[in-house]
Amino acid sequence: MEELASIIVDCPHSTPKYDKGTTEYPCVRTTELRKGYIDWSPMKYVNKETYLERTKRLTPKEGDVMYGREGTFGEAVRVPKDPKICLGQRVMLFRPNYSICNSIFLWGLLRSRGIYFQALRNTKGATVGHVNIRSIKKFKAFCPPLKLQEKFSNIVRKMENIRDYNRQSKRLIHNFSDVLMQKAFRGELKC
To answer: What is the pLDDT of residue 190?
Structure first.
């Protein structure tokens, strides 16, 4: 794995001081790593000072991959374009070595069964399993040519576009249904 990433950093080993409200600095914990994507609903936020402290080693940027290494280890998400994200506890950051590996391929690889089973074999801890960063760097991985990685990435992007379109459609149908129900209750609908 360490050959596929130009940089691999672990989170600061401390619990950040969270703000009570929403700031421009989301702090991604393993709780937000869900099925390959960030679940924004349980997100906690930090202030600028905490953000700067937690990004001293490396500031996450678009295309980096965050990986949960404890508790729900083995889940990975790509850093999105805009947010100023910092790592919560038990989260690692991989920056792809773009000369041999693209971001979407690295993300898919980190979520693969092969990597998960290596993590499972290296799990330590009686109550909450965790994987050591030194072990993760040594995980065996394959690396197809960049052209094949790009084909894989194009398929993933198309699937994500379909998923986003379906979400928008569901939202529009729900909103339209609400409008119709309100009109029906007010007696404004005619058959």
So the answer is: 74
For 25, the token pair is 């600095």
| pLDDT score of 108 more than 90 | yes
Say what the pLDDT of residue 92 is: 94
Q: Is a pLDDT exceeding 70 seen at residue 127?
A: no
Q: If we measure between CA atoms, which residue out of 125, 128, 131 comes closest to residue 110?
A: 131
User: Could you tell me where the DSSP H helices lie in the chain?
Assistant: 48-54, 103-110, 113-121, 133-137, 146-185
List the beta bridge partners of residue 71: none
167's tokens:
């979400």
Q: Which two tokens stand for residue 66?
A: 């965050």
What are the phi and psi torsion angles at 75 (to 5°)?
Answer: -95, 140
What whole-number distance in Å separates Cα of residue 107 and Cα of residue 117? 16
